[in-house]
Amino acid sequence: MSGLYIHIPFCKQACSYCDFYFITRQQHKQDFVDELVEEIQAKKDTRFTDEPVRTIYFGGGTPSLLSPGQVEDVLDAIHQVFDVQTEEITLEMNPDDVSKDYLRGLKLAGITRASMGVQSFNADLLDFMHRAHTADEALKCLEILEASKFEVFTVDLIYGNPGQSLNTLEHDLDTLLQFNPPHVSAYSLTVEPDTRLGKQVKLGRIAPPENDTVADHFDLVTEKLSAHGINQYEVSNFARSGSEAVHNSNYWNHENYLGLGPGAHSFWWNEDRKSANRWSNKADIKAYLKKAHETPYELERLNLPNLAEERLMLRLRTKKGVSRKVLKSLYKFEFSSAQINYLQKMEQEGKVMVDENIRLTPKGLKIADAILLDLVTAK
Ligand code: SF4
Question: Does pLDDT of 171 surpass 90?
Fold first, then answer.
């Protein structure tokens, strides 16, 4: 089964850390929805409709800048073209767009899972991140969500902000936990070069937080959430048992997915399951409206060794880890002796556990990116 990702590229303003594709002008919104419907219709009777669709994910950008009617038009088009057997239809929303009526409209349109981009309840941090919503709106949207029919929801938080204290983070977590979220995504702020934050760091106006501070934040997040039964199942994702995100798991499991909308990425296995392609739509709304989506952009052909490495990187970020049996049978992959030595060293240091699956321990997950890089480059 496959997943559909739909990129909605509109935002009210640019958050200081964001390097996703978005535009702050809104005038082409309806033209965009019309073109998106055409892009979906163009997939009719192609190989992308051979397997049923298990998850649909509206990401962005800010999907909550679409009206429920526009979301419904997109979902109607999907139902006409694909064999939809969805377990989950998620829409990302920003707190300042949420109202009782809006959530009701989305539910009627077919959205089953709300993803709320809260990031923080602290006014200074929201200001620093240049978020469009206020601390009041962050709180209000969860109250509205609690009173709505969305039992399945997730909330995004960001930690590791320059100057963010452990107390502020604890307050954010305590506030969030009052709403009993079934799922939380908590991201450490990353400084991307082509963002406002990246430029400020480069000019020396802002110092990124020390690694030790970020590690303390990470510990606080995992401890607090797990004390409330919301357990880490991937480096940045936490859930009550049974509430893990299906769509993201598809990515980690190397399932096929199709991206629609400007800047959306796709991944599809070739029929022989010995290679796959990854490509994107050009991240340019004007080009998109002129049908640039008809031509795959940045097409990358992946052979089994590339895919094995990717599987390793993706799965080792999850609590379950990577199965050696699957690596061998599906990817014909064997670890080199340098990699085996490295894994043994990490095991002795208590950062990796090796049995049928190879997985990172809590100590290892904290420095997952460094371990993964060392593992794939071990010589
Ligand atoms: S709302 Fe989301 S996509 Fe838009 S600028 Fe902010 S972080 Fe980026």
Answer: yes
Token digits of residue 367: 């420095």
Q: In the predicted model, is pLDDT for residue 163 greater than 90?
A: no
**Residues framing ligand 1 (Cβ under 6 A):** 11, 14-15, 18, 20, 22, 60-62, 94
**Ligand 1 centre distance from Cα of residue 73 (Å):** 23
Q: Where are the beta strands (DSSP E) in 121-269?
A: 153-159, 183-188, 231-234, 237-239, 257-260, 265-269
The pLDDT of residue 209 is above 90: no
How high is the pLDDT of residue 211? 85
Residue nearest to atom 3 of ligand 1 (CA): 61
Q: What is the pTM (predicted TM-score) of this model?
A: 0.96
Q: For the domain 304-379, what is the CATH code?
A: 1.10.10.920
Element (H, E) at 142: helix 135-147
Strands (DSSP E) contained in 63-122 are 84-93, 113-119
Question: pLDDT > 70: what percent of the chain?
Answer: 100
Q: How far apart are CA 322 and CA 315, in angstroms?
A: 5
- Where b means 16+ CB within 10 Å and e means fewer, 207-219 reads ebbeeebbebbbe
Query: Across-strand partners of 6?
Result: 58, 260
Question: Pocket of ligand 1, candidates 22, 25, 119: which has the most ligand atoms within 8 Å of its Cβ, to mutate?
Answer: 22
Q: What number does the ligand 1 atom closest to the CA of 131 have?
A: 6
Break the chain into its structural domains and give their ranges. Answer: 2-249, 304-379
Q: Which residue among 21, 25, 62 is best mutated to probe the pocket of ligand 1, counting the most ligand atoms within 8 A of its Cβ?
A: 62
| Distance between Cα 372 and ligand 1 center (Å) | 28
Look at residue 293 and tell me whether its pLDDT is greater than 90: yes
For the record, the structure tokens of 263 come out as: 């800047």
Q: In angstroms, what is the span from residue 32 Cα to ligand 1's centroid?
A: 18
* Centre of ligand 1 from the C-alpha of residue 19, in Å: 8
- DSSP string across 291-350: TGGGS-EEEEEEEHHHHHHHHHHHHTTBTT-EEHHHHHHHH-----HHHHHHHHHHHHTT
Homologous superfamily, domain 2-249: Aldolase class I (3.20.20.70)
Q: Residue 62 C-alpha to ligand 1 middle, in angstroms?
A: 7
Local structure of 26: helix, strand or coil? coil
